[in-house]
Design goal:
Blueprint lengths: L2 H21 L29 E4 L15 E5 L3 E9 L4 E7 L2 E2 L9 E2 L4 E4 L5 E3 L3 E4 L13 E2 L4 E7 L3 E7 L2 E5 L13 E5 L1
Antiparallel strand pairs: 1-3, 2-13, 3-12, 4-11, 4-14, 5-6, 7-10, 7-13, 8-12, 9-11
Length: 199
């Protein structure tokens, strides 16, 4: 046998040994071998994914009912939704609401401003909920003025809250906004910001 042939045989044999060695121990893991009639168990896992706690509000709203000086503007703000996707064992949350002043024509004169203390918020009951636990409105007994109902937004107020239960939940409500204008207020379109925060 020529030295070239012998070298080829040796090289082929080495490659075969290397391939077999590489295959040792790569078989997929197997369940235990069990006797006839005995339970043969496979441990199985899966994940439940957790998300975030979020609140969704309308971008822009024009209240349905305008006011005269020393009167009331009022209307529904639109659907406010808290979605709690944290998959928590203790999924409690509170949504709070605040308001800025409402102004027209730059708000440079006293008659061009409606102070936040004269902006009233009434959450009313939830229009929809999912999940378990207790859903509690911040205010009840909402009705068209006069008088205004709910709470003044001169300071932060609770809009809605959830306690108890487990896993995910959500709540939607449509609050009534009432604005008590002053006799000194001038005509114009008044603009302000009502802000919700959930935590």
């Amino acid at each position: 046998m020529s030295r070239y042939l012998r070298a080829g045989v040796i090289a082929t044999g080495t490659a075969l040994v290397s391939t077999l060695a590489a295959g040792v121990g790569v078989a997929p893991a197997q369940a235990a071998t069990c006797a006839s009639g005995a339970a043969c168990n496979t441990t199985t896992t899966f994940d439940i994914t957790a998300g975030a706690l979020e609140i969704t509000v309308p971008d822009t709203v024009a209240l349905a009912n305008d006011a005269a000086p020393d009167g009331y503007a009022w209307g529904q703000l639109g659907a406010i939704t808290v979605n709690d996707a944290r998959a928590s064992a203790t999924p409690s949350w509170t949504a709070t609401v605040t308001s800025g002043d409402f102004i027209t024509a730059g708000g440079n004169d006293p008659g061009e401003t409606v102070d936040a203390t004269n902006v009233y918020y009434c959450s009313g009951p939830a229009t929809a909920t999912t999940g378990d636990g207790t859903f509690t409105p911040g205010q009840t007994g909402c009705a068209a003025p006069p008088p205004v109902t709910g709470e003044s937004l001169g300071a932060a107020k609770t809009a809605f809250a959830h306690t108890g239960g487990t896993g995910n939940n959500s709540a939607t409500w449509n609050p009534l906004i009432g604005i008590d204008t002053a006799l000194a207020n001038v005509g114009g379109t008044y603009t302000g910001t009502i802000a919700h925060v959930v935590a």
